[in-house]
Write a structure and sequence with these properties.
Number of helices: 3
CATH class: Mainly Beta
Strand content: over 45%
Structural class: alpha+beta
Order of helices and strands: HEEEHEEEEEHEE
Number of domains: 1
Helix content: 10-25%
Largest sheet: 5 strands, antiparallel
Length: about 180
């Protein structure tokens, strides 16, 4: 009897190790489209500055249709990449710090921030992304994006900035998320 029990335990262990583990994870990850947020920093004195807000359409229904997945199967939505590019004759030396937020209604959540210190002379900076789950936000048709910064000195000419970002959506294949 002990011998049969040991053999069953061995076969079970081998089965789990050779493929059964995939059934335990049971998820797939997909990247969203790339979203863009363009804003200007108008000439002003040093100190706090708020960026204009923009409404972004998620196109979540198209993404779900393309991947043949239902909304209920979304397990999590995280930032997979985010960068800021200054597209005018400036560098990010104009910033001491800054952050980008996403929101819906009056609720705003910081999604990323400039590294401190901002790399000297940089015009293209990877931002530090939040590890928050943005599932509830991306399931809406639209969300608001905005931000703020602390200017390191007076700005005499307009600076134009573009932030681009992508989400990673994790879907549960079997069962509910």
């Amino acid at each position: 009897m002990k011998r049969i029990t040991k053999l069953l335990l061995l076969f079970t262990l081998v089965g789990v190790l050779t493929g059964g583990c995939e059934l335990l994870t049971n998820t797939v990850k997909v990247d969203s489209d790339t979203y863009y947020y363009d804003f200007v920093i108008n000439p002003t004195e040093a100190g706090p500055y708020s960026f204009s807000e923009q409404v972004i359409s998620t196109d979540i229904n198209q993404l779900l249709d393309d991947n043949n997945v239902k909304r209920e199967k979304i397990k999590s939505v995280k930032i997979s990449a985010i960068r800021a590019v200054i597209i005018s004759a400036h560098t990010f030396d104009i910033l001491d710090s800054g952050e980008i937020y996403l929101g819906s209604g009056t609720t705003k959540t910081t999604m990323a921030w400039w590294p401190v210190p901002v790399p000297a002379g940089s015009t293209d900076v990877p931002l530090d992304a939040s590890s928050d789950d943005f599932k509830d936000l991306i399931l809406q048709d639209t969300f608001t994006i905005g931000g703020s910064c602390n200017l390191s000195g007076p700005l005499t000419t307009q600076a134009m900035v573009q932030v681009w970002f992508e989400f990673e959506l994790e879907f549960k294949l079997i069962g509910k998320s």
